[in-house]
Amino acid sequence: MPKNTQVVLSRRERQILEILYRRGKASAADVRAGMADPPSYSAVRTLLGVLEEKGHVSHEAEGIKYVYSPTVPAGTARRSAMRHLIDTYFGGSAEQTVAALLDVSSTRLTPEDFDRMSAMIDKAKKEGR
Fold this sequence. Notes:
By secondary structure, the chain is mostly helical. The protein is 60% helix and 11% strand. It has 2 domains: 1-92, Winged helix-like DNA-binding domain superfamily/Winged helix DNA-binding domain (Arc Repressor Mutant, subunit A), CATH 1.10.10; 93-129, no CATH class.
């Protein structure tokens, strides 16, 4: 688990983590190659160091290079980010968060999307969450 699960990540840090989650592990050069409009190699190394300091990645030496991997599963990281978003922008209210999501995406949601979400809500009710 990251040292501080409420740490906000920059766009580039999130981009790097997304690459590491997709690949499982990668060198700085591999990460850079996977980035759209990548910064310099040195900047990628610096960002990986920042992510390591924040507790989001770790590294191991493979020959002469470091290979980085995420320290927590993607689902755990998503839940932590979502909790931060809900606490920061919606005062901790799941209801207000869902209302905002429905307002923003209602024109793009299909009837099947609504059915799946309704089933998730019903399941959560039955489980007492």
